[in-house]
Write a structure and sequence with these properties.
With 224 residues, the protein is mainly beta. It is built from 2 helices and 15 strands. It has one domain: Porin, CATH 2.40.160.20. The N and C termini lie far apart (41 Å). A hairpin with a 7-residue loop joins strand 9 and strand 10. The strands form 2 sheets. An 8-stranded antiparallel beta barrel has the order 1-5-6-9-10-13-14-15. A 5-stranded antiparallel sheet has the order 4-7-8-11-12.
Length: 224
């Protein structure tokens, strides 16, 4: 399974690199660069260890704590292919989750977080509902990618503090872009993600969990 996921990550990285290179060579005018922040949460999820341990973790997002929740993306709108409403984006999101106090108390762990990022990298298809008579443009998007969490576990059996390849991530988003000038716009969006995480921790044990996140983002875009 790990080999398959790593192979998928390599294929995804190749697709993303080809996409962005093609975009640059095709027409810089079709590119849009965006950065965003916002409020991100995550519902409870089941956690399974390969030694047979199972528990349900309650998660806190702490979006504005250090390190904060944030993201950025490059979007290529397919103007040159007579598909101006369609686009492809390469998106990076620094999601994060902290195990709550109840989870730490029932497990006996002193630290359980993915807070230097779940670090999601996705390739997405986008569709925008353009109308030249208005300055605001709704859009939808969905995509697939990988997650590279910073795994932080401190428990009686040992300590884990490292970036690991977690697995596959799915993403969906919906928002509205508001044009400020010819080059600049702002946007408000909802983004939901699902990440399958399967990582090694101390003592030769593997940890598995599936994390959903919900975020309301506010950002700014530069149109090349």
């Amino acid at each position: 399974m790990t080999y398959a996921l790593r192979s998928s990550a390599s294929v995804l990285a190749g697709i993303a690199f080809f996409t962005i290179c093609s975009a640059v060579s095709a027409s810089a005018e079709d590119l849009q660069f965006s950065i965003y922040g916002g409020y991100q949460t995550a519902p409870h999820s089941g956690v399974d260890l390969s030694d047979g341990t199972h528990f349900t973790a309650g998660w806190e997002g702490k979006s504005f704590g250090s390190p904060p929740y944030y993201g950025g993306r490059v979007t290529w709108w397919l103007e040159n292919f007579n598909k101006p409403n369609w686009g492809i984006s390469l998106d990076y999101t620094h999601d994060k989750v902290y195990a709550d106090d109840d989870t730490l108390a029932k497990t006996g762990w002193s630290h359980f977080e993915f807070t230097d990022g779940l670090n999601l990298i996705t390739v997405n298809g986008l569709y925008r509902f353009q109308d030249p008579t208005r300055r605001w443009t709704p859009y939808l998007g969905a995509g697939i990618g990988v997650n590279i969490p910073h795994v932080e576990v401190i428990r009686p059996e040992g300590k884990t503090w490292a970036y690991e390849f977690g697995g596959v991530t799915l993403q969906a988003q919906a928002g509205v872009d508001f044009k400020v000038t010819e080059r600049w716009s702002t946007f408000l969006e909802y983004k939901g993600t699902y990440s399958r995480i399967d990582v090694p921790i101390d003592s030769g044990v593997d940890l598995k969990t599936n994390i959903f996140t919900n975020a309301v983002n506010v950002g700014v875009s530069f149109h090349w």
